[in-house]
Hints:
Elements (H helix, E strand, L loop, with lengths): L3 E5 H16 L6 E3 L7 H10 L3 E4 L2 H10 L5 E4 L8 H7 L2 E4 L2 H14 L3 E6 L14 H9 L4 E7 L12 H16 L6 E3 L6 H5 L11 E2 L1 H5 L17 E13 L24 E6 L10 E3 L5 E5 L4 E4 L11 E6 L1 H9 L4 E5 L3
Parallel strand pairs: 1-16, 2-3, 2-9, 3-4, 4-5, 5-6, 6-7, 7-8
Antiparallel strand pairs: 1-10, 10-11, 10-15, 11-14, 12-15, 13-14
Helix pairs in contact: 1-2, 4-5
Amino acid sequence: MYPQIIIDLNKVEENSKIILEKTKAVGIKPCAVTKVTCADIEVAKTLLESGFEELADSRIENIKKLKSHFDNKVKTLLLRIPMISQAKEVVQYCDTSLNSEIETIKALDKAASDLGKKHNIILMVDLGDLREGIWPSSIEKVQEELRKLGNINVLGLGVNLTCYGGVIPTEEKLEELLELKANWEHKGMPLKVVSGGNSSTINMVLEGKIPTGINHLRLGESLLLGRETIDRGHIPNTHLDAFVLVAEIVEIKEKPSLPIGTIGQDAFGNSPVFQDRGVHKRAIVAIGRQDVDLNLEPIDERIEILGGSSDHIILDVTAIPTLKVGDKVEFIPGYGSLLQAMTSPYVKKVYKHSK
């Protein structure tokens, strides 16, 4: 069945062990983020066998799947700030959740009380990326509110950088987070965790610039795709091809490179622009934007992606005269493409061991 995503579990393991070694050397105990694979059980099992002790995901459905498969023995972290409507499930299935809204935390406290449990939270602070997090000037007020909650354990403080505003992690940003932690503890509430971000922070680890005191990271792309997330640079000694997307050619034709007729909008409401290449050889593969975005890198460098629609990706294959209908084309997916491919029911997941 095609299209398919081939998952090399040995390469996932090797990437994970390399990054765990690097983070452990600077006093960081990261969690492994499973959301890009929709908490795929084989990948999750590999991450645990590599040495990770905590799995993180943004969807409660994925965390429930992990808890069920691993008989509630896996430690889980909910990445997306919870919905009040899911408070009970969050307390039931997540050992820890990231939070930024006091009303939501109160709902978690009530759910924990009803269930006879304590629930851990990491309080997110917004240091300028403008996604989730309380503003630093509000932290004292939030701390006083949290003192009143008997079933919430404030495990630590965390920050998210790069994902929305593109703000790069720096020593100054993380020192600011550590200063907030010190101020928090000065008021008699000790914290165990300072979560310094995601795979965009991995460069600071590799360069020895991570401030002492940052002891937790939330890592996904760096483990699975071997890239940091500031400029998608290759993390030394990791594999970039632990995941390979394979699609089948359903048409090959020589056609003009410019459409003939009046140009309007494409299927997605965009006004397309084309480059005049003359008549050239074009291939269509049976996968489209319903399954992946076009952040794909053909493994054969002679192939170029021209564009795509819901069900088709169009390639320039002029440089490979031997290709024919039925042949397969391989791509290295970017993070967004991998996320979509793993979510799509139309993309078959195939596991291999390269050793």
